[in-house]
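[SOLVED] Need 3D model of a two-part complex

Original post:
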Amino acid sequence: MAERRYFLPEQITISSSHSLSREVEQILVHDRACTDLVIDGKNLIRAGSILSVLQDEWKVLAAKKKINLLFDNYPAEILAFLSHFEKKAGPSSPAAGRTGFFEDYGERMNQTLASLGQITIFLSNVYYWSFKAFFIRKTRRKGEIVRQSVLIGLNAIPIIALIAFLIGLILALQSAAQLRQFGANIFVADLVAIAMVSEMGPLITAVMVAGRSGSAIAAEIATMVVSEEIDALEVMGIDPIPYLIVPRIYAMILVVPLLTVLANVLGIFGGLVIGLTYLDLNVAPFMNEVLSVLRLKEIGIAMLKSFSFASIIVLTASYLGLQARGGSEEVGRATTATVVVSIFLIIVIDSIIGLLFYFG
Amino acid sequence: MEPIITVSEISTYYGQRRVLENLSMEVLPGEIMVILGTSGCGKTTLLKNMIGLLEYQTGRIELLGSELSTLDDSRKSELLTRVGVLFQNGALLNSLTILENLSIPIEQHTKLHPSIIKDVVLQKLELVGLAGSADLYPNQLSGGMRKRAALARAIALDPEILFADEPGAGLDPVTARQLDLLLLTLQKYLNMTIVVVSHELASIQRIAGRISFLSESRLLFSGPLNEALRQGEPAMDEFFSSHKEK
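Solution:
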């Protein structure tokens, strides 16, 4: 049976309360002989609200260790001050009941179905307005399609041209070493042409546009949502889909196939550079080989892919942008999600089209 | 009584534009000082000068006995733990819950155990009437609740001085009144010195111990509100009478 007396310091502030908290806890937890602990406040001059929190912590700890805890000699003004904080805060929010596996699963299914419903409604609206707005010009802002075409297409030319040229160059370089061994140098032209037009051209263009313009569209629309600009449009009687999204769809569908053609041409040019410098080929045979190997089917598939990819990018960006709720962090989330989802869908659609036409 | 804030002949410029000119004033411990004046007179600039967010070109400001602009980073950070600021729009971090928002200053400046930090936060939320909102995000709260949550964050470290920039801005009269009463309660319970920037006369009448009236970059008056009403200074008369007309 031993009584301990702990004298509180003159001043207790939240910044200096750590050592005080530790010292009292040391007594409560490690002093096995202690049966009664008296917290003596006779030296106290000033105390912050942290003292009230600490006292509550000590009470809980003392009860657990079966130690009698007393607070003694507190100045009257400190007691009056602490009385304002006596009521311990309750739970931070109503405790959520535990949910079982089936409830969780059902809830997730419910959310998935709701999302699918939203996507269906969004796509229906977009297709309806894309068709209707073609004939009714006043539903969209004047000059918006041109402005978006410049932003998505014209401004992307330098980076897409450079990347496509380098891809063509690398494709030719990697295959040249192998083809040379069989004296089949000229087939570098076939390989580069088919690879660029059927696969790499549309894919590289789409990935670049998704990263560059898809993210920009999502960020712009999400910012408009969180700053209530979309609400403002709606109360002015303006539907945001024809006004904001349809011009971007037209622009994207117009410029992505053009960018793909550019990427294909520059990719083949990259292959030509390797053919001329590394494989001793001439321009005419190389180009003859390219033109002979490229059938209308390859070019058609490339255009179909670029058209599909353009739709995926603009629809994903618009949908995720419109789904943003809350504050500025949602803008970042929508932007990131747009790039990830677009690239994922692009590769999935690319695989499907590839499989469909491989056997055709 | 020694002033807790001393502003001595400060001048502040935005580029070539003068916002404050040779301004001097004092704030005493435990009082509520309201800085008022018409829009654009330099109230918020003065507040930012006081808390070190904006540099002034000439003069000197002493906050709790130290001049912020001369302190190194660690001493400045230490001094700022004794000061709380309620920004005009609350400035809560939207990606964090209210509990996380309020925990930031405590985690940053103390070594307290997370469970104690949580208790301190809940205590502060209860003090501002937001018990039960800890796990919500700022965008799930109303404007008034966001302001109160921001106030709870401002007082998380039991500061000696609380600065409040237009606390009633954007709030309805009932909520604005509740917020004023909360400031009075905090001053009483926590013995805080409070500096409020405002141009709402009703709010000023409720909370002000003394006022400092700014007009065209200068301090026109510093003292009790009832004295200000009797001054006969044209700019102040115009300000007060236009509020009475409302």
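Edit: The beta strands of chain B are 5-14, 17-27, 32-37, 58-63, 66-67, 83-86, 161-165, 193-197, 210-215, 218-223.
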